[in-house]
Amino acid sequence: MLKKERLAIIRQYYPNALTTIDTVNRVIDLMEDDLDLEPSKVMLADSICSDDVNSIQYPVRFQEFLGPFKMGGLDGFPFTGLSGMAAFASHVPDDGGVFIYYGPHIGISKTGEIGEIHRFGQNETSGCCGAAQGALHKLTHKLIEPGKVTELDHQMNTIEQILYNASERILSAKEPLAEATEVIYEAIDRRIHELIAATPFKCHYIIVMGAILINSDRDMGSFSSAKRFEMINLENNTTTDLLSMFQ
To answer: What sequence ranges are listed for the domain Limiting CO2-inducible protein B/C beta carbonyic anhydrase (predicted)?
Structure first.
């Protein structure tokens, strides 16, 4: 299947989606052409779901960066918290920069079915993101207890609480799973920026990309729908919005 045909399927839901490979290429071009930064001087952190499909579909060009430092747990929420961000910040080259990619993920099969993908080695499709689907199921059936976050299932309970706090918005949506994914994205976006604000960095640049990561069938690959792309210049304390690069 041609790339334009694959993109047409994904863009039914995410009009600005690019392949993850093209997304990474654009980020590296920005660093090299505009910032005079080699990827080998940039420390990468990602806050994406621990689902194995994200490792399988991880773009090869990401290996040009240092890292990655893994911040994300279920559906990409940065469960490593302030200690994780501080540890990551301490690993960055003094004359380099950081790139933080974050967001939840969702599946879209090549038949256009949202929430499903055909994984390697399986004959049937399976859910993606399973954590979001599980939390949505509990929300729909009124099985989430407000404020309940247990030690045994801390990450899943946190995702449940995020959805519970936006119950009406999610359950009234045309595509509840897609809306739940947007809600989780907003929670991740807030938390990532809280962590950045509370963490000292000694490098020149912090580049952040918030996105919906879209997985598809094993022969389709993955895609990224950018929602935030910013460059923070720590030398003059300015932030530049670069999202137009992905529109």
So the answer is: 19-232
